[in-house]
Recover the amino acids of this structure.
């Protein structure tokens, strides 16, 4: 007759294996939490600028159509108080966010004869960033205005973001907002 203690592994070995397995799971969870970038979870601060049409039907329609992802950037929450007509995306690697604003005034630099860039049936005008020359290369950004719609839409891109964001947003703008004739200010 065999004793019950001879069947299976010793109790101490089972307890040790269970403790090691639980410790491994806890270690994996702790590492995952520590690897998360807290900046990714922070809301994006967006400064308020004059945007008289930000609450318009056009801007509301555009906001509803905006994608969750632009290339490798994901939609980010805006810090309160969030200006109406604004949205932001932040890349997984952190860095400066992509910011979209709808309903702004015509940019002062947008005058007759200003160069435009067509992207997927949307005409974009690039404005200079105040103080951009004073910034380090990795902090420089560019702001582009969609100028052939019923509302002006501005897109601020960090340095090195590539063309994906403006291409994706051009497609959304072209589907959502009807094209209008370009209306630059007269040359002074």
């Amino acid at each position: 007759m065999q004793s019950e203690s001879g069947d299976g592994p010793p109790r101490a070995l089972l307890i040790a294996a269970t403790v090691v397995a639980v410790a491994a799971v806890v270690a994996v969870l702790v590492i995952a939490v520590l690897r998360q970038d807290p900046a990714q979870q922070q809301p994006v601060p967006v400064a308020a600028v004059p945007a008289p049409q930000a609450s318009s039907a056009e801007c509301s329609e555009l906001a509803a159509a905006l994608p969750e992802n632009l290339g490798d950037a994901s939609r980010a929450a805006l810090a309160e108080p969030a200006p109406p007509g604004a949205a932001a995306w932040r890349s997984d690697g952190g860095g400066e966010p992509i910011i979209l604003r709808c309903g702004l005034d015509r940019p002062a630099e947008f005058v007759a004869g200003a160069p435009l860039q067509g992207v997927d049936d949307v005409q974009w005008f690039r404005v200079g960033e105040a103080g951009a020359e004073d910034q380090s290369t990795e902090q420089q950004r560019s702001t582009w205005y969609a100028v052939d719609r019923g509302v002006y839409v501005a897109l601020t891109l960090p340095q090195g973001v590539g063309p994906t964001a403006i291409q994706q947003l051009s497609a959304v703008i072209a589907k959502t907002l009807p094209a209008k004739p370009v209306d630059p200010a007269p040359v002074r």
In short: The longest strand covers residues 98-104. The domain at 42-176 is CATH 3.40.1000 (Protein Transport Mog1p; Chain A). The mean pLDDT is 87.
